[in-house]
Specification:
Strand order of the largest sheet: 3-4-5-13-8-11
Largest sheet: 6 strands, antiparallel
Distance between the termini: 56 Å
Number of domains: 1
GO molecular function, one term: glucose-6-phosphate isomerase activity
Number of helices: 2
Catalytic activity: alpha-D-glucose 6-phosphate = beta-D-fructose 6-phosphate
CATH architecture: Sandwich
Family: Belongs to the archaeal-type GPI family.
Bound molecules: D-sorbitol-6-phosphate, zinc ion
CATH topology: Jelly Rolls
Structural class: mainly beta
Helix content: under 10%
CATH class: Mainly Beta
Shape: globular
Order of helices and strands: EEEHEEEEEEEEEEHEE
InterPro entries: G6P_isomerase_prok (IPR010551), RmlC-like_jellyroll (IPR014710), RmlC_Cupin_sf (IPR011051)
Pathway: Carbohydrate degradation; glycolysis; D-glyceraldehyde 3-phosphate and glycerone phosphate from D-glucose: step 2/4
Strand content: 35-45%
C-alpha cells in the first residue's frame, strides 16, 4: 500500500493594515529595475530607475513542498504609480505546468488581473477589496494597480505549478492599462 507523507499543519497571520504576511519564509522584492522590457515607454521606466529605483512589488510566501497535492499561498503587494501613465504591474507569467489554475482574493486596493492565452485571448478582471478572481488553467496572469494605495492580494495555487516568465517577456500582453486624467483606459 502507498504510504502518504504526513505534513505538519500550520497557521499564519496576516497584517491586514500593512497588507503583509507576518513571518514569511520567502520575501521577494521587485524594484522598477526588475521591470525592463515590460512597459511601453522604456525611457520613462529608465528615468524612474535613475530617480531612485522605487519599490514596485513584494511577494510574501510560506514555504511548502513544491509537490503535487500541496497548495502554495501568500501575499502579493503591488505599489501604486505609473510609468508615463501605464499603471504599475507585476511581470506576469504562465505557470510552468500550464494546466494549473490560481485563485486571488483582493484584500485592499483597486486594480485588474490581466490574463491572456497563447492564442491571444485577453481579459481584464476587476479587483477590489473582497473580490475573488479565478485564473483558469492556461491563462498567463499579471496584476495591475489602478488605485492610489497598494494592491494587496492573497493568492493560492498548486505548489508544483512553477513559473514561466520567458514567454511573457517575449510576447507581452495584448492589452495595457493606463491611468489618464484620473480615468482607467484599457487599450
Ligand atoms: C504565483 C502568483 C503570484 C505572483 C506575484 C508576482 O503563481 O501568481 O504570487 O508571483 O503576484 O507576480 P510575478 O508575475 O512577478 O510572479
Ligand atoms: Zn501564478
Amino acid at each position: 500500500m502507498e504510504k502518504h507523507s504526513i505534513y505538519e499543519p500550520f497557521g499564519v497571520d496576516l497584517d491586514l493594515v500593512q497588507g503583509i504576511l507576518r513571518e514569511p519564509d520567502n520575501h521577494l522584492i521587485r524594484k522598477a529595475s526588475s521591470m525592463k522590457g515590460h512597459y511601453a515607454d522604456a525611457k520613462a521606466l529608465d528615468d524612474l530607475i535613475h530617480q531612485g529605483d522605487p519599490l514596485h512589488y513584494e511577494v510574501f510566501e510560506k514555504e511548502v513542498p513544491q509537490a503535487y497535492g500541496h497548495l502554495m499561498f501568500g501575499i502579493s503587494k503591488l505599489q501604486p504609480g505609473t510609468v508615463n501613465g501605464e499603471c504599475f504591474m507585476t511581470k506576469g507569467h504562465y505557470h510552468a505546468i500550464p494546466e494549473t489554475a490560481e485563485v486571488y482574493l483582493c484584500l485592499c486596493g483597486k486594480g485588474y488581473m490581466l490574463m491572456k492565452t497563447t492564442e491571444g485571448e485577453c481579459r481584464a478582471e476587476y479587483m477590489e477589496r473582497g473580490r475573488i478572481v479565478y485564473v483558469p488553467p492556461y491563462w498567463a496572469h499579471r496584476s495591475v494597480n489602478v488605485g492610489s494605495e497598494p494592491l494587496t492580494t492573497l493568492f493560492i495555487y498548486p505548489a508544483d505549478a512553477g513559473h514561466n516568465y520567458g514567454d511573457i517577456e517575449q510576447e507581452g500582453f495584448p492589452k495595457r492599462i493606463y491611468l489618464r486624467h484620473g480615468k482607467v483606459e484599457i487599450v
